[in-house]
Amino acid sequence: MTYDNYYDMLVHYGVKAVVQKVSEGTTYVDPTAKYNLASAKQAGLYLNGYHFARYTTVEGARAEARFAVAAAQSAGLPIGAVLATDVEASEQANNSYAANTANNKAFMEVVQAAGYRSTIYTMGSWVGTKMSVDKGWIADYPYNTSRDRYTSHHAWQFRSDQQFAGSYGNFDVSQLYDDFFTANQTPSPSAPVTPVPSQPAKSNAASDTDYAQTGVFKPSATVNIRTGAGTGYASVGSYATGESVIYDHVYIRGTYVWARYLSYSGRYHYVALGVNGGESYGSRSSNAQTYSHTYYTVRSGDSFWSIASKYGISMYTLAANNGKSIYSLIYPGESLYIR
């Protein structure tokens, strides 16, 4: 998920908060959590997380809670945010009401001791039958959603197949009934400042111009990805030394020269090629066909999703191209084949 995806949800759909999966059991850490939370924060959304529970005992619940806290901290989930326990697996289905209730209590106590707030996410049919839920986050998908349900709880998840224009796949969406998921943070849309040379050359252009030119750009320093051809547009990511981008149009806008490319989200993004008549931010070739293969060197914080979105390919394709699945671990310094 990118800044564009989340910001569009905020502006056009009224989305206020995200709840990102961070972990499951005591072995799985979601590889997209860090990137998604950073993008959502940049777009101005409240950040929250959840852990998919596999525990069946109090000690197991405490162990999973410690694991979830570590995963949440590593992903950048701010202290004071919600770190919920998602209780809906076969392990809990086969457990007793008393055991589930005690296990959930133990999980939330560890999470709260670490500075996060916690609640139980589960299906409506399990409330009061499989466990005690005081004020939770309840999932129930009726045919008719015109009437609010579970209003005594923090939130009601009313569908799992919501689609947003410009974003890929289906999303779980919920109705909030209080400020539990929108507390202890002061979100506001923001974007990193585009780095500029310390002594930029003056533009030689008398007016703005553009060219229908295709090519490959390889930056010699980190350059920001923008939503438009100008430093006033939002930054949604960056390209680093050693990466490449295939562009289809070049724009001269005042001081800078910009390249346009079509991103994985189906939207055009822009990177600065350099200063008009001055410093270049990398090398470029007007013949994209001369580059038969593209490779990417993994950096800290990268995920299959974040890398794939840069190059306009599916994260499943990226993983398969490298003999991996999207759940495989990738490490800084590792080289991945793009296309």
Give a quick precis of the structure.
The protein has 339 residues and is of the alpha/beta class. It has 7 helices and 19 strands.
Structure description:
The protein is of the alpha/beta class. The protein has three domains: 3-176, Glycosidases (TIM Barrel, Alpha-Beta Barrel), CATH 3.20.20.80; 209-290, SH3 type barrels (Roll); 295-337, Membrane-bound Lytic Murein Transglycosylase D, Chain A. Helix content is 22%, strand content 27%. The chain is built from seven helices and 19 strands. The strands form four sheets. It has an eight-stranded mixed beta sheet with strand order 2-1-3-4-5-6-7-8. Helix 1 crosses helix 2 and helix 6 (304-311) crosses helix 7 (315-321). It is elongated and about 70 Å long. Mean pLDDT is 85; it is low at 192-207 and 288-292.
What composes the largest sheet?
Answer: 8 strands, mixed
Query: What is the CATH C-level name of the largest domain?
Result: Alpha Beta
Counting DSSP E segments of at least 2 residues, the number of strands comes to: 19
CATH fold topology of the largest domain = TIM Barrel
Strand content: 25-35%
Which whole number gives the mean pLDDT?
85
Shape field = elongated
Number of domains: 3
Which architecture of the largest domain would the CATH scheme give at its second level? Alpha-Beta Barrel
Strand order of the largest sheet: 2-1-3-4-5-6-7-8
* Termini Cα gap: 21 Å
Radius of gyration: 23 Å
Low-confidence stretches: 192-207, 288-292
Q: Level of helix content? A: 10-25%
Continuous helix count: 7
Query: Structural class from helices and strands?
Result: alpha/beta
CATH homologous superfamily caption of the largest domain: Glycosidases
Reading the helices and strands in chain order gives HEEHEHEHHEEEEEEEEEEEEEEHHE
GO biological process, one term: cell wall macromolecule catabolic process
Family: Belongs to the glycosyl hydrolase 25 family.
Region (Disordered): 187-206
Domain LysM: 294-338
